[in-house]
Write a structure and sequence with these properties.
Elements: E1 9-13, H1 20-30, E2 34-36, E3 39-41, E4 55-57, H2 60-68, E5 72-79, E6 82-87, H3 88-96, E7 100-104, H4 107-117, E8 121-127, H5 131-141, H6 146-160, E9 168-171, H7 175-190
Parallel strand pairs: 1-7, 1-8, 2-7, 3-4, 8-9
Antiparallel strand pairs: 3-6, 5-6
């Protein structure tokens, strides 16, 4: 299935803990034109997460079958044995509803999607004020082990080196300001008058 030339896509990426999910929720609550693209994942739900709402949770075997069937526009093994991806059917579902998919995905996946959709894609990189602040945010969540946090912090330092691949970098030192800046860029891309 060739999906280029369809509707527009918005990518929001960041190292874990930089605030991309908070910014994404802000945008979804304020713009009915946008629709959250639900990613597929092989990890278990965290906290209140629900299948089909936060993620499409699936087994590693099911995920790998979908890879073999070319069912994803992007997928990555983000951590050992933990796959994440964006299903082609999910993007088609959102476009069919007349909406713009907003993807909250990892850095490598975002670069891959951007390369496929070029001019129809707006890519935003949410940057934490520092690696130390990022570590404190991850610890404050209380959802990850110390080992898991160390892995995420190490990966974040690497991911920050890719920020120049994206259309806009938004520093999330203060969430309200970062949301407003993101909103401004998206309104321009979608030609929405505020």
């Amino acid at each position: 299935m060739n999906m280029t030339g369809k509707g527009k896509i918005i990518l929001i990426t960041a190292p874990s803990g930089a605030g991309k999910t908070s910014i994404t929720h802000y945008l979804l609550n304020n713009y009915s034109q946008l629709c959250f693209s639900i990613s597929a994942a092989t990890r278990l739900p965290r906290g209140e997460e629900k299948d089909g709402l936060d993620y499409y949770f699936m087994s590693q075997e099911d995920f790998e079958d979908k890879i073999n069937d070319n069912a994803f526009i992007e997928w990555e093994m983000v951590y050992e044995g933990k796959y994440y991806g964006t299903l082609k059917s999910e993007i088609e579902r959102i476009w069919a509803a007349g909406k713009v998919p907003i993807l909250d995905i990892d850095v490598k996946g975002a670069i891959h999607v951007k390369s496929q959709f070029k001019d129809n894609c707006l890519s935003l990189f949410i940057e934490p004020p520092s690696i130390d602040v990022l570590k404190k945010r991850l610890e404050g969540r209380g959802t990850d082990s110390a080992e898991n946090i160390a892995t995420r912090v190490s990966k974040a330092a690497y991911e920050l080196s890719f920020s120049h691949h994206f259309d806009n970098c938004i520093l999330n030192e203060e969430l309200t300001k970062a949301c407003a800046e993101t909103e401004q860029v998206i309104c321009k891309f979608l030609d929405i008058k505020k």
